[in-house]
Specification:
Elements (H helix, E strand, L loop, with lengths): L1 E6 L8 H8 L7 H19 L6 E7 L6 E3 L4 E10 L5 E3 L5 E4 L5 E5 L15 E7 L2 E7 L4 E4 L10 E7 L13 E7 L2 E5 L16 E5 L4 H16 L17 H6 L5
Antiparallel strand pairs: 1-2, 2-8, 3-7, 4-5, 4-8, 6-7, 9-10, 9-14, 10-13, 11-12, 11-14, 12-13
Helix pairs in contact: 2-3
Length: 264
């Protein structure tokens, strides 16, 4: 099994300004360093929990079809395609009606639809490729003049999908709120408008907001808290640290925060 990223996250869930507030840093000379530490902290948190926090496109490559395909790095957002090499050596793409996806399980599962079975593949390495989008939240660009949000990634929404918004390093576009369910309307490709009611009128945006706005779910607070602790530790300790023996981790430290999110 091989897991690769065909498109990685386009934004970090922890903003530089949020990290600086935690660090009690006001000057800008350390911004580049703090930004790199946030990226490293995100990588650690995702590796430890085996989750994807900001949506990205992943490719799972298998040598053959198992009875059930399990997709690493939940939560699953959507399955893009399942391709395989048939016995004649030709690449084929399965119809989405040929398989069923269980996105509620973690990790998500895929198996043949009722009455269907997996097709035969050529006996060769990497004969099956599943391309999918996983992650809690997708960064967006906001066009207040058009009342639209454009997703910065491969994820798309359809009209009447229900979404929530979140923000790092600033504030959502007014009058949007983080604790409100919104309905997608006028979805065109990766661009959507939002409404308070299903099929209702698009909300008029007063501004584009500040910081980074995300659509979809919300990155768990435990993960963000763990990232702040990691950034703080690395910022204060620029070299390797030798701990006293026996080393006693503080209660609710990084790994303690992340254990509740860990998936297997």
């Amino acid at each position: 099994m091989i897991l690769t990223f065909s498109r990685g996250p386009r934004a970090e869930p922890l903003h530089v300004e949020d990290a600086k507030l935690h660090l009690r840093v006001t000057e800008t000379d350390s911004d580049a360093l703090i930004r790199s530490l946030i990226t490293a902290a995100l990588g650690y948190a995702e590796m430890f929990t085996r989750r994807q926090f900001v949506t990205a496109t992943l490719r799972l490559t298998l040598d053959a079809f198992p009875a059930v395909i399990r997709l690493p790095r939940p939560p699953l957002a959507s399955v893009t395609s399942i391709q395989y090499t048939d016995i004649d050596g030709v690449t084929q793409t399965l119809s989405s009606s040929d398989y069923q996806v269980d996105g509620r399980s973690e990790p998500a599962r895929i198996q043949p639809a009722y009455g269907e079975s997996w097709p035969s593949t050529r006996r060769e390495l990497n004969a099956v490729t599943v391309t999918y989008v996983a992650g809690y939240a997708t960064p967006v660009s906001v066009d207040a003049s058009a009342n639209t949000l454009t997703l910065l990634g491969d994820l798309t929404y359809a009209d009447d999908d229900v979404v929530r918004l979140s923000n790092s390093g600033g504030a959502l576009p007014l009058p949007l709120d983080e604790k409100t369910d919104y309905y997608v309307v006028s979805a065109t490709g990766s661009t959507v408008s939002l409404s308070l009611t299903e099929g209702g009128a698009a909300i008029t945006l007063n501004d584009a907001g500040t910081g980074t706005t995300f659509i979809g779910g919300t990155v768990p607070d435990q993960a963000l808290s763990a990232m702040r602790l990691l950034v703080g530790h690395w910022f204060e300790n620029r070299e390797a640290v030798t701990l006293p023996v026996p080393a006693r981790p503080l209660p609710m430290a990084v790994d303690s925060l992340l254990w509740a999110l860990r998936t297997f």
